[in-house]
Design brief:
With 688 residues, the chain is an alpha+beta fold. 34% of the residues lie in helices and 22% in strands. A hairpin with a 7-residue loop joins strand 4 (66-71) and strand 5. The protein is extended and about 105 Å long. It starts with a helix and ends in an 8-residue tail after the last helix.
Length: 688
């Protein structure tokens, strides 16, 4: 039986052996649980730097696996490979450091194999402009933030350029003469020259260091012109340049130069004027102001301006319309003219006018020496010597006293009696020994000037250009001078002179007023903007009488007005400027002029912590004199600008007067009378 079983087994195995011999090349199927080939990334090495956005990685896999290459940020896979035991994937990666994840998936398994690699991508930077790029010697472009910029070409020197967080870079060329220079740019990772990225193509940079000639005026010529209609300014210049026309130091219109000719127009008021022009070539070089052309525009008979009075109940007052200087649109040049490219538009906040200075058309980092026209709407001293500027200013000063200052004092006085324990009843100009402020004068100024400077800059409008950083520096300097000299130093010295002592306190209400005036100026496009630059006030420690405190307050206001008038005279004498330091000086003087005169008007109000209240309590006659001088100066220097909306100012004053008088009448007259009638006729008691 054993031999029979062995024979039977041998006979049963014979077909299997024969079948195996018939197919010797067929691979044996892997039994369940057999190991698979692991996933691996063989190229490139980790943290490799690619000089282009095109990246290729490769590796090995299992023959039955499916490889997917995917960014760590998610999204669709870059590649999906199933065939073979090796794989390669090429894709476009974003600039910077990237982590790429590779998955190996198997049929029926939910947990894939995974491998990761880090790569860096740094393609070529861009150079702003089309070849040939016309410049004064500075080349700029865009790149990856934090990377270095290396220039190649003739006479490029060592470029210290680093791509800023905004993505911009700028480098000065080491050239001393005008000419054409071939330039290319390369990025380096983290400003490390040993890790170069991609290089740009070569462009021709046309350096122009020579300022253009003055623009030539063919119209107008010196002489007299009739009033009415637009004054046309025209002449010749350098093709591709821009000509800015100034009348009495104020920019009135601009024109590109096409075919060697330019033209623009603007409305002019009556009186004597001085016409000048500045030509800017395509590289941005200014010519400087041309010699003045004196012209005289016939003066129309001015209407008699009645002294403003409080409106009668039920009546309306129609404010006079000021003379405005509105630039007239210049027709577009024909296609045959060789004109400079129009600057690109810059988005602004909804419902707000464009920023002061318009659009420069220059690289944002190449505008350090470009004027912003901040304060360009301030009338010059010479322009106020003709016409009725000072009479209008005096009328506005009287209106300020009658329609703003006195109604406001009446309203707040009524509120003080209505709420005897409220904030209105406290004398904020006096301190006891336990109420000494924690902040010393210097720390108080440092803490408040920053916010006031930001509000002042926003009042005029800003753009994303470095020239507005220069403007912010100029405003900060002006406000430091104003608060330090007019308030801190003057009040301290004057207090000692009268035998008292004072301390400087930050007044949040001043910052609130500054914010309101900045919002109104920006929203209404008021130029020059209304700025309140004083943000601190003095409180007297020792018990001073009304007369010493009034003298100190009068001294403070006089010094404030002297600073404003001095800055106005210096700004008018400086005239149109070009360049970094002259522009900084002009903007500082304009800021000091507007902030000092605007603050003087606010501080003359005879209420709350204002110095005007101390003067009024000492001598109402002295207060009227100081308030009238301050408001008249504001009417001439600030409201005397050609585009200042005087009619809206008068309407706002009338509305404020009506509200204040209504509030005073209710508290003083109507409410007591109503209460007495209720007392005379008591209501009968109800029976239950």
């Amino acid at each position: 039986m054993l031999s029979a079983a062995i024979a039977f087994a041998l006979l049963g195995a014979t077909p299997t052996i024969a079948a195996a011999a018939a197919e010797p090349d067929a691979p044996a199927a892997a039994a369940p649980g057999d190991p698979t080939a692991p996933l691996a990334i063989t190229s490139p090495a980790s943290d490799t730097l690619f000089p282009t956005a095109s990246v290729t990685i490769s590796g090995t896999k299992d023959v039955t696996g499916r490889v997917e290459v995917q960014s760590l940020a998610g999204g669709d896979p870059y590649c999906s490979i199933t065939a073979g035991t090796t794989w390669t994937c090429s894709f476009a990666a974003p600039t910077g450091r990237n982590t790429v994840t590779v998955f190996q998936r198997f049929e029926g398994e939910s947990t894939p194999d995974e491998a990761r690699i880090t790569i860096r991508v740094l393609p070529a930077p861009t150079i702003t402009g089309k070849s040939p790029i016309v410049t004064t010697g500075v080349i700029s472009g865009t790149g990856f933030p934090g990377s270095g910029i290396v220039l190649s070409g003739s006479a490029v020197g060592d470029c210290p350029g680093i791509v800023q967080p905004s993505g911009y870079w700028s480098c000065p060329l080491a050239v001393s003469a005008s000419g054409d220079y071939p330039i290319s740019a390369r990025q380096t990772w983290a400003n490390n020259d040993s890790e170069p990225g991609g290089a740009s193509g070569t462009v021709i940079v046309r350096v122009d260091k020579d300022p253009p000639a003055y623009p030539v005026f063919t119209q107008p010529t010196a002489g007299e012109y009739p009033v009415g209609g637009a004054m046309v300014f025209s002449g010749t210049g350098e093709s591709g340049a821009r000509v800015d026309v100034f009348v009495d130091g104020t920019l009135v219109c601009s024109s590109s130069v096409g075919g060697g000719r330019w033209s623009c127009a603007a409305q002019l008021g009556g009186g004597s004027h001085n016409v000048q022009g500045i030509q800017w070539d395509a590289a941005g070089n200014p010519s400087g102001a041309s010699p003045g052309i004196p012209i005289s525009v016939a003066v129309a008979a001015p209407p008699v301006a009645p002294a403003p009075t409080a409106p009668k109940p039920g009546s309306t007052v129609t404010p006079p319309s000021p003379i405005t200087t509105t630039p007239v649109p210049v027709p577009e040049p024909s296609p045959s003219q060789n004109t400079a490219e129009a600057p690109i538009s810059v988005p602004t906040f909804p419902f707000f006018p464009p920023p002061v200075g318009g659009i420069s058309g220059l690289d944002p980092l190449d505008t350090w020496a470009t004027p912003t026209e901040y304060g360009a709407a301030i009338p010059t001293v010479e322009s106020t010597g003709t016409g009725n500027a000072w009479l209008w200013g005096l009328a506005l000063g009287v209106g300020f006293i009658l329609l703003v200052a006195m109604p406001l004092r009446l309203a707040l006085g009524a509120l003080r009696s209505r709420f005897p324990r409220h904030y209105f009843a406290r004398d904020h100009s006096r301190l006891t020994a336990s109420e000494l402020p924690q902040l010393r004068p210097r720390l108080t100024l440092v803490g408040a000037i920053g916010a006031a400077a930001v509000l002042a800059a926003l009042a005029g409008g800003i753009q994303g250009e470095v020239r507005y950083l220069r403007l912010a520096i100029a405003i900060t300097i002006a406000l430091l001078v104003l608060n330090g000299v007019a308030v801190a130093i003057t009040t301290t010295l004057a207090s000692r002179a009268v035998g008292g002592e004072s301390r400087i306190r930050l007044v949040p209400g001043f910052l609130a007023i500054a914010a309101i005036t900045a919002l109104i100026s920006r929203g209404g496009g008021i130029q020059p903007p209304v700025i309140v630059g004083v943000v601190v006030a003095a409180s007297f420690v020792t018990g001073l009488g009304a007369r010493p405190r009034g003298l100190v307050a009068t001294t403070q206001l006089l010094v404030t007005m002297i600073l404003g008038v001095g800055a106005w005279l210096a700004h008018s004498a400086l005239g149109p400027v070009a360049g970094l330091l002259p522009s900084l000086a002009s903007e500082t003087l304009a800021s000091l002029c507007i902030a000092a005169i605007g603050s003087a008007v606010i501080m003359t109000l005879p209420v709350s912590r204002m110095p005007g209240r101390l003067i009024f309590e000492w001598s109402p006659v002295a207060w009227v004199a100081v308030a009238l001088v301050a408001a008249t100066l504001a009417g001439v220097v600030i409201a005397g600008g050609a585009t200042f909306p005087v009619q809206w100012l008068i309407g706002l004053a009338l509305a404020s007067s009506a509200v204040c008088l209504a509030l005073w009448a209710w508290i003083r007259l109507i409410e007591p009378s109503f209460g007495s009638r209720v007392a005379v006729h008591p209501q009968p008691a109800r029976s239950h």
